[in-house]
Amino acid sequence: MNELPFDQVRTLLAVVDEGTFDAAAAALHVTPSAVSQRIKMLEQRTGRVLLMRTKPVRPTESGQVVVRFARQLASLERDMQMELGIAADSGPARLPIAVNADSLATWFLPALTRVPQNPPICFDLHREDEAHTAALLREGRVMAAVTSSAEPVAGCTVRPLGLARYLPVASPQFAARHLSAGPLERCLPGAPVIVFDRRDELQDRFVRSLTSDGSGAGRLRHYVPTSEGFCDAVAAGLGWGLVPEPQAEPLLRSGALTELLPGRRVDVPLYWQQWKLDVPALALVAATIASAAAESLHNQD
Amino acid sequence: MNELPFDQVRTLLAVVDEGTFDAAAAALHVTPSAVSQRIKMLEQRTGRVLLMRTKPVRPTESGQVVVRFARQLASLERDMQMELGIAADSGPARLPIAVNADSLATWFLPALTRVPQNPPICFDLHREDEAHTAALLREGRVMAAVTSSAEPVAGCTVRPLGLARYLPVASPQFAARHLSAGPLERCLPGAPVIVFDRRDELQDRFVRSLTSDGSGAGRLRHYVPTSEGFCDAVAAGLGWGLVPEPQAEPLLRSGALTELLPGRRVDVPLYWQQWKLDVPALALVAATIASAAAESLHNQD
């Protein structure tokens, strides 16, 4: 990897970030044919196709590896210049982090406010989406992620943060109308349910844990893909759902929600994935997040 | 369009939804070569390339038009079977709708709870993302959208819903620390700011309306891409920002937020875009949303 000419690597990054060869040429102040030439040479040198010539241009799997390398290179270069006091006017450190929606809605932002802002660090948060977070990490578009996936992305380290706790709840009116005609395992599969998105299996798994025939939640499902919207939809009586403990507790106390199975909890392990790279701002944030998670989440054992 | 053989149109839809020719073949219970053959014939008949052979397969601009037609066809067919009482066990009506994050966090969910649920309608909400919402409507992946874009998508009607109102606010501690050294137009460009995502220009436009040199908000920007997270980040003192009125008001009353320019508001017009198609469930939802918006949003004039 060290043998790759940096101008070619930087050109690849510019093409991926700008989306087209022409836009990359404009950003780099070179001609489009120079951009095209550099990419061709880089592909010859690596022996791999690095870019899909779509609109916008997208890196191939091999291309993602080189793009991550390019971003890490830029980050290290910036740190070195800062330390040497020769940094160009490149602005404050910028930390792109992917965070799953429920963490962002509960413990994550208070944790971020604890990160010392001297020198200032700008947070560039992305909503985690498991389908894309691995690609975001692989391409180096985010430096770190709070995710429920324990599977390490290539080039990243993983450490457990703790367990996020969910409570199966509904509004009292909803429970009276849909869940009072018999035992829960019989009523629940036919009742309307709130589901975060197509990948959210929490509700189905919960129903399967109750029923003997292995059936999941019902067909009357509303998809509400924001954390607060999910909780609001349950409180409004559109359906039942598994709500994060910090959001459910005040609503249980006020009587806006009721537990479907008092005392029953569902725990989901969360992980911190980050680049294997010694960036001081990233290390500071990682340590702050880990200690905040230890206070806000439940213990793994 | 009426001349296109329906089996070929349905096959195109299956390929787009399943992502590969093989998966589409499995879903349709035919061989992959039959799928490939039908797509080729459809492309010959329309005289257009309909699919990009990427992984997953994606429709071209022309392909999107045919895909939308296929979805509308399926929706009409379903309605007809329901009316004739010959519907297969296809489940309740499912309405995919894209909604911008701030609407979803404020007035939209209470509006949805007013939609009569007899017969039941399942809501399939997508977070609006202007870059993708036009494509979602064009492909027919959503039937309707609440969006700040007045530009009608091909095949859709647009109607104004009203004005969403935003307040420029910060925490009192933040204002004392960053905005008390001089007039606002001098302090604001240097102060940390919360921005929703790369397409969010509200804060920059607000600063530009104050300054004479046309400069936008500062470089110390934190990106927080959820509506509630945005508001939480402002209240936590990470930066100033333009917060939707319904979220800002209780925090202004409790003293957690303070107005940067008392009385100053920024209004953003919202629109309802939907398929030009007479689906009863869609008409019911559109009417309910429009009347709820008239109550919750401000008047256009």
TrEMBL record, chains A, B:
It comes from the Bacteria. Residues 4-60 form the HTH lysR-type domain. InterPro entries: ArgP, LTTR, LysR_HTH_N, LysR_subst-bd, WH-like_DNA-bd_sf, WH_DNA-bd_sf. Pfam families: HTH_1, LysR_substrate. Keywords: Activator, DNA-binding, Repressor, Transcription, Transcription regulation. One of its GO terms (molecular function) is DNA-binding transcription factor activity. PROSITE patterns: HTH_LYSR. Gene3D superfamilies: 3.40.190.290, Winged helix-like DNA-binding domain superfamily/Winged helix DNA-binding domain (1.10.10.10). Belongs to the LysR transcriptional regulatory family. This is HTH-type transcriptional regulator LysG. It comes from Streptomyces colonosanans. The lineage of its organism: Bacteria, Bacillati, Actinomycetota, Actinomycetes, Kitasatosporales.
